[in-house]
Amino acid sequence: MSLRIVVCVKFVPDASGDRGFADDLTVDREGVDGLLSELDEYAVEQALQIAGGVEGCEVTVVTVGPGDAKDALRKALSMGADKAVHVEDEALHGSDVMGTSLVLARVVERAGFDLVIAGMASTDGTMGVLPAVLAERLGVPQVTLLSRVKVEGGVVSGRRDGDSASEEVEASLPAVVSVTDQSGEARYPSFKGIMAAKKKPVDSLDLRDLELDAAEVGLAGAWTAVDSAVKRPARTAGTVVKDEGEGGRQLAEYLATQKFI
Amino acid sequence: MAEVVVYVDHVGGAVRKPTLELLTLARRLGDPVAVALGEGAAETAGVLAEHGAVRVLTAQAPEFADYLVVPKVDALHAACQSLAQPPAAVLVPSSAEGKEIAARLAVRTGSGIITDAIDIEAGDLGPVATQAAFAASYTTKSRITHGIPVITVKANSAPVQPAPAPGTVETLTVTFTPAATGTRIVSRTPRQSTGRPELTEAAIVVSGGRGVNGAENFAVIEALADSLGAAVGASRAAVDAGWYPHTNQVGQTGKSVSPQLYIASGISGAIQHRAGMQTSKTIIAVNKDPEAPIFDLADYGIIGDLHTVLPQLTQEVHTRKN
């Protein structure tokens, strides 16, 4: 049995940098170095684990983003993915989740898939809805926010830890899956993996290749508009005291003056 | 007046607090029409009416409990279509499931979506949503420019306000799409109640991190939490170490909380944690390391060992309360 897995990944500004907005109120992708979104590493990891048990399985990583976004693909390839697709087009700048998902759905359909795997959310936008949107667009089941995932006999199953219950869920392939950071530590690329990644194919596509209209994507085609983005004043540090044996009581006194007790 | 659809998060008819907060926000935009699904749906009507629901649309079907997300999308879509005119907005609580329901509804109705709003105001061009971005270091204001404004709202974003309304119960007719039965829920294990408040809804949260140093030591955190009627949180380091369940994780990949009071104990304050608690009204830090970045955020900090400071504080809280 062969299995075609497509992993959707995102190139995001490093969360440890000073992230901000550009003049057009889109995410500033110039000021801070980018990298493969940490939460997408879990998706790559699960794809590789599933692929490891299946003869003739192929893992393709896909990203939509500017030139630098190739770095995210390289990382995934060095972890062990087989090939990559990079969608790059100036008209994509400023796309919202609806625009991005439209492009991803088209790429995935074109590539052919049994399983699409994504992370639980991006670390920049943090919406966490793209997998559900993709499933809706592709017309296949969504099996999302899994902390454990298994593929067997054409069925994907796993555990979804919700707020009020933990659920065991399953669906027939093809399907869209997303995995959480509880799904298992992602592997580090080996030196061999890094060298091998340099030779793996990266297919570059633009909107014309995907037969998409520029008006449907990008800032102009977005269905949401950001009117303002204001840096919050940094929280100012308050009183800090060293515990000399009365720390707990001092804290109680503070809480009492603030009317918490 | 235009109607605003509010998705009701309830457990067997008991409405969860974030839904009541949504009604406060919905009333700024129009007449709230609540949509309650599944077992106990009709029993939600009383409390929804007290908080401003003009109508309560209910639907019962086994699909809501047996299949993931899509049956609820079908129902919410049916609710939107049943209105005389498109709703002024659809508001959904920002739970993991709520966001997925909202997002699929948005695709279906050709609408933009805004997630994790912390405030909503009426505007000339439709609802204006406030969000916190980049680990709450920015505040943004956004609108939906296409279709129905579909907005998910974080807990604790608005006060719960009594606003008596008719709350007329009507049965919603739902025709499920073929996709509705795509993902089967094979089994469900309800989370055991700790008797403590829900983490995202609590007014006070006491969290422990690496400094707690062991699962058994979380008893110190729990004791303080119980003296204050607080929820218990944990940093990613504590969760990864296996000391406390992931459901209690505060931070980027856990829960995002915004309580009146947040007590960070033995937590250094890495960006991943700050992302989940930075918007708390008052922040207290207890940490042995005077250089811990958490002190930069704290309104009041104690440099000291949480294992001596917290029990003393707990004792003092009990003394003062009696």
UniProtKB/TrEMBL annotation, chain A:
Family: Belongs to the ETF beta-subunit/FixA family.
Keywords associated with the record: Electron transport, Transport
The protein's name in its UniProt record: Electron transfer flavoprotein subunit beta
One Gene Ontology cellular component: cytosol
Xref: SMART domains: ETF (SM00893)
Coiled coil ranges: none
Cofactor(s) this protein requires: FAD
A GO MF term: electron transfer activity
Alphabetical list of Pfam families matching this protein: ETF
Chain's role: The electron transfer flavoprotein serves as a specific electron acceptor for other dehydrogenases. It transfers the electrons to the main respiratory chain via ETF-ubiquinone oxidoreductase (ETF dehydrogenase).
Subunit structure: Heterodimer of an alpha and a beta subunit.
Automatic annotation (TrEMBL), chain B:
Superkingdom of origin: Bacteria
Start and end residues of each Electron transfer flavoprotein alpha/beta-subunit N-terminal domain: 4-189
Swiss-Prot/TrEMBL GO biological process terms: fatty acid beta-oxidation using acyl-CoA dehydrogenase
Co-factor binding details: Binds 1 FAD per dimer.
Sites where the protein binds FAD: 210, 235-236, 249-253, 266-273, 287
Matching SUPFAM superfamilies: Adenine nucleotide alpha hydrolases-like, DHS-like NAD/FAD-binding domain
Name of a matching Pfam family: ETF
Cofactor or coenzyme needed: FAD
Keywords assigned by UniProt, alphabetized: Electron transport, FAD, Flavoprotein, Transport
InterPro entries, sorted: DHS-like_NAD/FAD-binding_dom, ETF_a/b_N, ETF_a/FixB, ETF_alpha_N, ETF_asu_C, ETF_asu_C_CS, Rossmann-like_a/b/a_fold
GO molecular function terms attached to this record: electron transfer activity; flavin adenine dinucleotide binding
Job description of the protein: The electron transfer flavoprotein serves as a specific electron acceptor for other dehydrogenases. It transfers the electrons to the main respiratory chain via ETF-ubiquinone oxidoreductase (ETF dehydrogenase).
Quaternary structure (record): Heterodimer of an alpha and a beta subunit.
PANTHER family xrefs: ELECTRON TRANSFER FLAVOPROTEIN ALPHA, ELECTRON TRANSFER FLAVOPROTEIN SUBUNIT ALPHA, MITOCHONDRIAL
Assigned protein family: Belongs to the ETF alpha-subunit/FixB family.
Protein name (Swiss-Prot/TrEMBL): Electron transfer flavoprotein alpha subunit
Species per Swiss-Prot/TrEMBL record: Streptomyces fulvorobeus
